[in-house]
Amino acid sequence: MQEQYLHLNDKEVFNGEFMLAVFKMVPYGDIEIEDVATEVAAESSTGSNLKVGTMTGYSQSVDARVYKIDKEKNLVYIAYPWVMFDRGGNVQNIMTFIAGNIFGMAELRECKLLDVWFPSQMLDQYDGPSVTLDDMRGYLQNFDRPVLGSIIKPKIGLTSTEYAEVCYDFWVGGGDFVKNDEPQADQNFSPFQKMVVSVREAMDRAEEATGHTKVHSFNVSASDFDTMIKRADYISSIMKPGSYAFLVDGITSGWTAVQTIRRHYPNVFLHFHRAGHGAFTRAENPIGYSVLVLSKFARLAGASGIHTGTAGVGKMAGDVKDDITAAQGILRLRAKGHYFDQCWSEIPESDMDMIAEVKKEEELWASGARGIAQSRARGLDTFLERKMSWRVISKTAPIISGGLNPVLLPQFLDVIGTIDFITTMGGGVHSHPSGTKAGATAVVQSYEAWKAEVSLEEYAKEHKELDEAIKFFNKHGTQAHRVDNSAVYHNEDAI
Ligand code: CAP
Ligand code: MG
Ligand code: MG
């Protein structure tokens, strides 16, 4: 037991100088949870496994503090003086502290970081998103439905021109947004620059044909930052402003890559793909962190959008409550987490207009996805951030993929409770019996049916692409094996 890190019932931790974290911890054998809690606090802040003689008065002031232990649920609450973190808003450094060595500690059988809370004084140190879904909506002139997107499949292997043709088909079918698949980079069969030029050409044709603007998200993840920046600059030189996003594989290329692109290109939508997150977030993994924690740090780092999972509707494993809490946690100004209520801005009592706007936003959220869609259709501009942008850590959009298809979209809308997200369907579009264009049209028709509160089957009577989709996906759609971990994700202990 390292006493110096044990501060049970310490009220100082709520004074705005501490980032709070809650872990589920299960020690091996008969090690006491207090012991392992203080070891984790030491290892994730100033200490080691032994008390060192080199400690100073000041160094102890930046010790992490175990301020609450719930023995029944194996929950350990730790407060981190945020002054301990690298100055200049560096998320990589925080993750090194609280999701670093502690995952290797021999005493721990389980160590899952479930939720974090940032005091508003800390938020000012971090970038947050500069371009948001609201900006993309403005470019697309699409305000009252999700941004309907696709991922080009096969994942890789198409030539640049073949790739661009599939983009064209999706866009003329009515889709808004196409992304590279997460491993698409600069391969022999699809040289990066040729792919970009081909996409621009296909986008021009599709905009000509449909009269609608389109967006493409290009993967700029690469071997080194210089190459990332070279690729990003090339895209910016070929594509129209607003018509492109930069996709970063945030787990495999890292937080520094995410923040480098955020800081170099503050005018471009930053798309955080989370390939590899399952090693940390899957409900059955005892060591790691929740989707909510990953998503909150992505917002802090400045991602305009991050994949948050299909909340049990699609192909990937994932805890329904974790996916939903994560999606709402990064979209809303103030949202309940698993254990902490996070507000992404200081809301001074005197700031009556902000308080009024926040109230309006809350009421809108209470009306669910359909209520939000109807209010938007009436032209009600409820983009709180647009009004308050200088005061808040702006919203990060949930990006939803993973096995979604036109038949599953309505179900997902009702589960997630908002229309403010980007869907990206790969197999769910390109396996449509009549091809990609029909697949895109089926997605649009599925949303139209949901919005009109008509069953898909009913709507399909007059819409053949949807009719074919229903027949096909009812036979071939997949539902992944589900692990229900909701017992861990509850909110009795909100801060
Ligand atoms: C989806 C996808 C996405 C993952 C990401 C894929 O393709 O492109 O990268 O779903 O998962 O490569 O599998 P499909 P998440 O639409 O064909 O399933 O969004 O959960 O991070
Ligand atoms: Mg830091
Ligand atoms: Mg993919």
Please state roughly what percent of the residues sit in beta strands, choosing from under 5%, 5-15%, 15-25%, 25-35%, 35-45% or over 45%.
15-25%
Q: Regarding CATH, which class of the largest domain?
A: Alpha Beta
- Gross morphology is globular
Which kinds of small molecule does this entry bind, naming each only once?
2-carboxyarabinitol-1,5-diphosphate, magnesium ion
Mean pLDDT: 93
Largest beta-sheet details: 8 strands, parallel, barrel
Query: Measured on Cα atoms, how large is the radius of gyration?
Result: 23 Å
State the distance separating the first and last CA atoms.
26 Å
What is the CATH H-level superfamily of the largest domain? Ribulose bisphosphate carboxylase, large subunit, C-terminal domain
Query: What structural category arises from helix and sheet content?
Result: alpha/beta
> In DSSP terms, counting alpha (H) and pi (I) runs of 4 or more, how many helices?
21
Fraction of residues in helix: 40-55%
Spans of at least 5 consecutive residues with low confidence: none
**CATH architecture classification of the largest domain:** Alpha-Beta Barrel
Q: Using the coordinates shown, work out and report the CATH topology of the largest domain.
A: TIM Barrel
Count of beta strands? 15
Biggest sheet, spatial arrangement of strands? 5-6-7-8-9-11-14-15
How many separate structural domains? Answer: 2
